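Figure 6 in text form: structure in, sequence out.
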């Protein structure tokens, strides 16, 4: 059993299929769609090019590595930007978390059309962008991790408080009106001194003459 479409599976079984790799990176201000080579192809209603006039070309795609222990599957991707400004933009901190999709497909050598449908072999997000240089100029290397990376977030900063709840759900006031809380726990700041009510004296059961004292 294969995850490929019947048409793509049949094409890849041929002696000399014309294959391609495609990368889609969704940036905060736009989308990069590149293929590993020259030319222009279209699939999924989108156009992929061999060279982007701003963000350059694909230099290298490393082998996909499986996750072990507390690490998620990852892949390395290197781009050759068209200029220094593009390199700086691609390596900016805002790029972290950008969605990345990597496809494997084939082309009909007679018509030049893409065989339906290219196979999505990896979906993840940019973890760490690294700016470098080689004999070809500036390089931007991305460590792209699987979406399963999100499963390793330990939520250490989560708090059962109205403030934290509203930071995630701004219009949800479910914790604003919690009653019956015996003591307020202050996180990261000194406690606020207030009235503390205690009971002294008296006995158990229905009798007793306890009195309430404020401190």
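Output sequence:
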């Amino acid at each position: 059993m294969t995850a490929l479409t019947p048409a793509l599976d049949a094409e890849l079984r041929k002696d000399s299929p014309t294959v391609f790799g495609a990368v889609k990176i969704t940036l905060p201000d736009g989308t990069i769609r590149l293929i590993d080579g020259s030319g222009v192809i279209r699939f999924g209603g989108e156009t992929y090019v061999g060279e982007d006039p701003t963000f350059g070309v694909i230099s290298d795609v490393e082998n996909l590595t499986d996750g072990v222990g507390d690490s998620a599957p990852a892949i390395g991707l290197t781009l050759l930007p068209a200029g220094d400004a593009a390199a700086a933009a691609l390596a900016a901190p805002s790029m972290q978390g950008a969605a990345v999709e990597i496809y494997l497909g084939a082309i009909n050598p007679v018509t030049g059309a893409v065989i339906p449908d290219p196979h999505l072999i990896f979906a993840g997000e940019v973890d760490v962008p690294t700016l470098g240089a080689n004999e070809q100029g500036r390089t931007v290397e991305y460590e792209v991790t699987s979406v399963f990376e999100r499963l390793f977030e330990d939520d250490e900063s989560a708090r059962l408080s109205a403030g934290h709840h509203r930071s995630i759900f701004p219009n949800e006031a479910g914790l604003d009106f919690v009653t019956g809380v015996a003591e307020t726990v202050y996180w990261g700041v000194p406690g606020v001194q207030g009235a503390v009510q205690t009971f002294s004296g008296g006995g158990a059961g229905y009798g007793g003459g306890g009195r309430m004292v404020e401190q």
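Caption detail: The mean pLDDT is 79.
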